[in-house]
Amino acid sequence: MLEKEEKRKQKKRSMKRVLLLLNSVLLALGTSGGPLVMRLYFIHGGNRIWLSSFLETAAFPLIFIPLTISHFHPTSHHSPKPNLVSIKLPLFLASAVIGILTGLDDYLYACGIARLPVSTSSLIQASHLAFTAIFAFLLVRHRFTVYSVNAVVLLTVAAVVLALRSGGDRPPGESTRQYVIGFVMILAAAALYGLVLPLMELVYKRSKQRVTYSLVMEIQLVMCFFATLFCTLGMLINNDFKVISREAKDYELGESKYYVVLVGSAIMWQFFFLGAIGVIFCSSSLFSGIIIAAFLPVTEVLGVIVYKENFEAEKGVALVLSLWGFVSYFYGEIKQDRENNKNGCPETELPQSLSPNA
């Protein structure tokens, strides 16, 4: 009997490792592929900002796939079968508000990507970690450590280094004003993203529901729906739906490839969402953040290789400072977690809903 129970536990651990690996791959693809495909749309003649922001969450119906699987196949045979819809009204409303903020964040990010090389925008977006640390301190009383302060300083300096080089890698035909607007938009997106994560943590802490994988996906579904709705209203006001067919005909890569790029962008961003949810469930939000951070230099290098973007000394310095900041932050988090475990009071790792703009 004991041997059978041990085999069952081992099989469950193996399945969880496979699921973690699969979701890590999805998250890595979304982290690097999302910005690259979005930039591909803009550099070949696309110019609809609201359309691009809409695509960041438009593939949210894909979440129904793992949600359905989770409903009919609970992670534990001993756990009760989840309800078809388990999210309650207060949590639904909070998720809707955060979804609208996510839609705004998507718009700001698309504005920046339209004007900046991928290698530059990725480095600026790295500053979200600094904003996250600040807002986490204000909203959920996450205390600062020497490591988190060091990370905030390093990431701020990295952004300043890039700002001093403003326009040095400006795309051909783009004015300095447009480049600066892109820089500010990406920075604003990073700041808003830094606010969304602690807000989600605050919602989870104050929720009276038990946080399960199914509930996390329901929350993500609600957020993505309202983010998409927000961007859809922007498209209607900006008449984007009326010009999509005309833009497709004038697209440099051809009409059919235009639609392939749009669909590819939506899928890549949804890979990010599904991967982030899966990694958080199988491991932790910290590990999810580490994967995103690890693929920052990958995204930058791919931008340089695929789109022949310039890589000046300032970008190299900013990259080193950003990676240093990431390592400092996560080392401090891991060290703090070990101290908590040693003292016998481990902190519960709360699932965090991640924006695609990491």
Automatic annotation (TrEMBL):
Pfam families: PUNUT. The chain crosses the membrane at residues 49-69, 89-110, 122-140, 147-167, 179-203, 215-238, 258-281, 286-307, 313-332. Belongs to the purine permeases (TC 2.A.7.14) family. Keywords: Membrane, Transmembrane, Transmembrane helix, Transport. GO terms for cellular component: membrane. This is Probable purine permease. It is found in: Membrane. It comes from Phaseolus angularis. Its main location: membrane. It is a multi-pass membrane protein.
